Structures are given as C-alpha cells and as structure tokens.
Amino acid sequence: MPHFTLEYSANLDGLVDMAQTVEVVRKAAVETGIFPLGGIRVRAIKCEHYAIADGGKNYGFLDMVLRLGEGRDLAARKRAGEHIFRALSAHLDPVFANSKFALSFDMQINDKETSWKRNNIHDALKKVETVHG
Amino acid sequence: MPHFTLEYSANLDGLVDMAQTVEVVRKAAVETGIFPLGGIRVRAIKCEHYAIADGGKNYGFLDMVLRLGEGRDLAARKRAGEHIFRALSAHLDPVFANSKFALSFDMQINDKETSWKRNNIHDALKKVETVHG
Amino acid sequence: MPHFTLEYSANLDGLVDMAQTVEVVRKAAVETGIFPLGGIRVRAIKCEHYAIADGGKNYGFLDMVLRLGEGRDLAARKRAGEHIFRALSAHLDPVFANSKFALSFDMQINDKETSWKRNNIHDALKKVETVHG
Q: Comparing C-alpha atoms, which of A5, A35, A1 is closest to residue A22?
C-alpha cells in the first residue's frame, strides 16, 4: 500500500508525458506523509479503445484510483487526496487548455483481513538510509 | 462518473470490434437516463496473458466493472445494469456462438467523501446544446 | 467469479514468464476448492509507466486483486487467499532474489445484487466430464 492506478485514453499520449505523470503522483503521495515510502506504487494503463460522453472522438480522460490500507481517518484521507489531486490536476493544465478532458480520482480501502504482501524495497530503502544517513 | 472498465482476453480481438463494443456500452449507458452525459467514460483494456477455468487455451472472457457515484437507489442501479448488460450481451452473441466465453458485469459505488474531479466536457456539451438547441 | 487481475511493472517481463504466472494463480485457485471451475478468470496487465517508492528506476511490482462473489465466510477466504499468495510468492522467488520487488494481493467482494453474467464455459466443462467421466 498504497496503490495508484491511472487509466487513460490513448490520445493523451500526444499531449502529456506519462512517465512524468506517474512521477508527479508519486512525489505528491510522498509529500502527504501518511504513506510508508517503500509501499508507494503508481502505474498507468493506456486504453486504446474508449467512448466518452456523447461519443465525440476528441475527448480524453484520465481516471485514477487509489487503493490504500485501513487505519487512516477520513480527515487524513481527504487532506492527502486533495493534495495529490491538486498536483495531478496542475500537471494536466495544458491538457485542459488544449482539449476536452475529464480527470477523476477516487479512493478505495483494502480489507486488512484479506491482504497479503511481500516487499524487499523497504529493506533496500533502510540500507540506503544507513549508508547515506 | 460513471466509469466503465472492460478487461478482455486478447483472443477476443479476432472475434469482435472493440471500438464498437465500448460504443455499445456508452450508448446503453446514455439510454438509462441516470448518468450525466459528460461524465460517461467507457474503456477497454486488452489482457495478453490470461488463464481461464481448467486452463483450456481457447476460452475467452470480457469482464466489465462500473464505478458510479452515490445517490442512486438499488432499484435504479439494477434497472440500469440490466439494460446495459443486455445490450453488451446481445452485441457479443456471435462470440458466444463461436467460442467458449465468459461475460460478466459488476458495479461498485465510489465514496463521495473521497472523490475528486475536473471536467471541461460538461461545458463543451452545453455549448453544443446552445449552438444546436 | 472469481476474477484475478494482476497489474505489473513492465520491467518484470525480463524476469518472469507472465503466461506461466497467470497459470500458477489459476492452478492455486482451483486447488482451494472454493471456486466454480468454469468461473475462474486470471489475467495480467502490463504497466509501461510506473513510479515506485523513492522513484528508484530498478524497482518492480506485481499487484493482484481478486474480486469474488458473496457467500464465503472470512475463514474460507483467508485460507484460500493464503494458499494462492503462497503459490504466487514462491513462483516469484527468483524475482525477489534478483531485484527490489513488491508483491501484493487483496480481495474484494462483489455485490450480488448488481452482478450479471453469461458463461458457456460451465457447459463446455460438463460435456468434457461426460465424455471423459
């Protein structure tokens, strides 16, 4: 945790650098201070086929879902979500200026009773801290 | 809102036009009358790797998930879901006739407390209405 | 039901056979004994763009979500999840040995009131049973 999955219309590729976009989300997630660094995973999935609104061919979308673990209250989740959405939205200003576009972001909470993980990135980060700390 | 995401086995590409498929879902969603036009986003994601049932190589699947906002009662959601599923299922009749295939559709409701959006398609649609109205 | 969706960082392609990976999950799901054989659908989605942890370029991830139907108690779901995760994790041992990697698995339960399906694989499996039975 946390998992950020971005689904986007393929026509966005000409308008925005998607490698940069996932990095914008990652940085904003770190800045919230509520997520363990080693658990942050942001990814984007390009959708070649899509149909939007009245079917106009020039529309685009990016939809982000965050799945996170239990244990953070609503106020903390709202503050974090607001911060991340603002960063992503600002990054996409040029897209809004140049096209008809829909951006969205929703959160889901994973049930800790049915959640499994294995992760050696946490340890790698600790070693980095030790070396550089 | 609403968001329709279709995941499908790559072998479906030879059997059905996926651009047409997302359009079938979009039209059916509009016909339900319960969604704001400018918020409808349908997309399809091709899955190159999949394993189905007993592992037979010729099976296929299409699984659709709708994420929608709060505020519609169960009866309205069931009626809308039934209508959309019927349209999608009829569109895929040739696939069922010619292959072993699993179609599914589930709904999820987004928490309005942790939902953010920015969308200039709504405004574009209003302008179209004004010009043509 | 059940639906297993694996999202993974594209750099995993050089480290693991993804066709084999979805098959490992399918087999483990069958072994749990709690799923109808004809309903099992496992698929993987490659994510070309991702940003992980502190942004290090060599990290990887695989995140699996299982969506299943209502009607299985928590103990049964935990036992099944544990079995499937163990199989997947063991399969990915070489990835953990050779890279910084994050594996995760979460379950979601679909609302049976808003769930639609059409599936001719169940029948195909029955015919196979009859012929070979």
A: A5
Q: At what angle do helices C18-32 and C74-91 cross, to 10 degrees?
A: 150
Note the pLDDT tens digit of each residue in C64-74: 999 999 999 99
Q: What angle do CA B9, B10, B16 make, to 5 degrees?
A: 90
Return the residue matching tokens 């991702």. C50
Show the domains of chain C with their CATH numbers: 3-132 (3.30.429.10)
**Residue A100 with chain B: CB contacts under 8 Å:** 120-121, 124
Structure tokens at A38: 């080693």
Segment A10-59, tens digit of pLDDT: 999 989 999 999 999 999 999 999 999 999 999 999 999 999 999 999 99
Q: How many CA atoms lie within 13 A of A74 on its CB side?
A: 5
Rg of the Cα atoms in chain A: 17
Whether residue B119 and residue A104 make contact (CB cut-off 8 A), yes or no, is: yes
Reported as type and span, the H/E element at residue B30 is: helix B18-32
Least confident of A74-83, A122-131, C60-69: A122-131
Residue of chain A minimizing CA distance to B117: A104
pTM listed for this prediction: 0.96
Residue B46 contacts A, CB cutoff 8 Å:
yes
How many Å lie between the alpha carbon of A32 and the closest alpha carbon of chain B? 15
